[in-house]
Amino acid sequence: MKYLLIFFLNLLPQYAGKSLRRGDSYPRTFEDIKNEIAGYTDTAKAIIDLAVHGKAQNRSYERLAVFADTIGPRLSGSKNLDAAIKYMFSALQEDGLENVHLEPVKVPHWERGEEFAMMLEPRKHSIAILGLGSSIATPPEGVMAEVIVVSSFDELHKRAHEAKGKIVVYNEPFITYGKTVQYRSQGAVEAAKVGAVASLIRSIASFSIQSPHTGWQDYQPDVPRIPTACISVEDAEMMSRMSLRGTKIVVHLKMGAKTYPDSPSFNTVAEIVGSKYPEQIVLVSGHLDSWDVGQGAMDDGGGAFISWEALSLIKDLGLRPKRTLRLVLWTAEEQGGIGAEQYYQLHKENISNFDIVMESDEGTFKPSGLGFTGNAKARDIVKEVMTLLQPINVTDVYDNADGTDIDYWMRNGVPGERALQVPACAMTSVNTSGFIILKGTR
User: Fold this and answer.
1) Residue 333 catalytic?
2) What is the CA radius of gyration of the chain?
3) Residue 253, number of CB atoms within 10 A of its CB
4) Catalytic-labelled residue, pool 115, 271, 309, 333
5) pTM (predicted TM-score)
6) Which end of the chain is more exposed for a tag (fewer CB within 10 A), N or C?
7) What confidence score (pLDDT) does residue 96 get?
């Protein structure tokens, strides 16, 4: 039901306009705005009834299931991503949305190839790994080296004299995804700085079922590039225990990753054109690309499809917002928001026409509220809009609407929104080889 949050914020530009901007004043009194918001109560009820009880019930799930089953994983630069974009272009046209088009971008093209890791000492044990995006390959014969296990970058630096020629295993404790993900993105660089030959990073997850979790990582131009992969929480903990006992650990790592020249791709766009201020934009979004080891149904098929659903609901009810509601399905988000950055560069000259930007990329579980970035007056308006969601008991507004694909806009003063939810499980089956589509809001 998270798409309901997305839709109701689209009522906001119908009365707020430039008042969302820093330093701008209200065009009317706040009481006037509250009264106008209250006037949408019946419309809100109609949308809720259509989405929850009417013909649109479970529609976004059914659409997503067909899409994920038909296309599969959608790695940046892959033929599957090309097929997904073509699929969505046709689907949005068939849905009767307006100005459906593709905007070209260049995206990274990396493939993992075959990969394995085997602990040879103190005993043979197959280590579950997933190479990290942009990782280089090992030599054809692989890398065989002793392991040094650390729990933080600080420990690695203190033990730098021990790391040369070894494989660094990071067994960093999970705090939050945002705080812990630095080990995935920077782990190889920090290990290479102290002379390591490879790095293995404990998956950035609060829970594990022997399931490594892939993602993007970054090299630095002045630091040697070494192979890097994620391992399961269980294997990281096991090697940490062995190391603390003084046991020598030797691992054989082999990775066949390849990086190709950037490939052509597209951001996929559709609209419902505004009736009164068509040049002004309310942007809703999710990303179509995914990693290669799952269906990409949760990250971020769900976010993309509930963003589409917001437009479908409005169209089905014959509603016409005063400002243009624009859906953007990003490409190459997993590689660092590549499609979104190029979109921003293309459209930033018209930034004054963007009233609010929204992104859905945290799963599709039971909604718990809304994260919002904007000035205090805008926040007051958003809180009033959220009262329309009382029938589904989702009315809270929280600080900050972080999001890779909308960050460029928010940094330059455009208000941002991101739906928050209570997940059924946190980062346990996203970007792994064992993903299952989840139905409903569990």
Assistant:
1) yes
2) 23
3) 25
4) 333
5) 0.90
6) C
7) 98
**Percentage, residues of the chain above pLDDT 90:** 81
Nearest to 328 by CA among 284, 272, 358: 284
Give the per-residue SS3 of the chain. Answer: CHHHHHHHHCCHHHCCHHHHCCCCCCCCCHHHHHHHHHCCHHHHHHHHHHHHHCCCCCHHHHHHHHHHHHHCCCCCCCHHHHHHHHHHHHHHHHCCCEEEEEEEEEEEEEECCCEEEEEEECCCEEECEEECECCCCCCCCCEEEEEEEECCHHHHHHCHHHHCCCEEEECCCCCCHHHHCHHHHHHHHHHHHCCCCEEEEECCCCCCCCCCCCCECCCCCCCCCCCEEEECHHHHHHHHHHHHCCCCCEEEEEECCEEEEEEEEEEEEEEECCCCEEEEEEEEEEECCCCCCCCCHHHHHHHHHHHHHHHHHHHHCCCCCCEEEEEEEECCCCCCCHHHHHHHHHHHHHHHHEEEEEECCCCCCEEEEEEEECCHHHHHHHHHHHHHHHHHCCCCEEECCCCCCCHHHHCCCCCEEEEEEECCCCCCCCCCCCCCCCCCCC
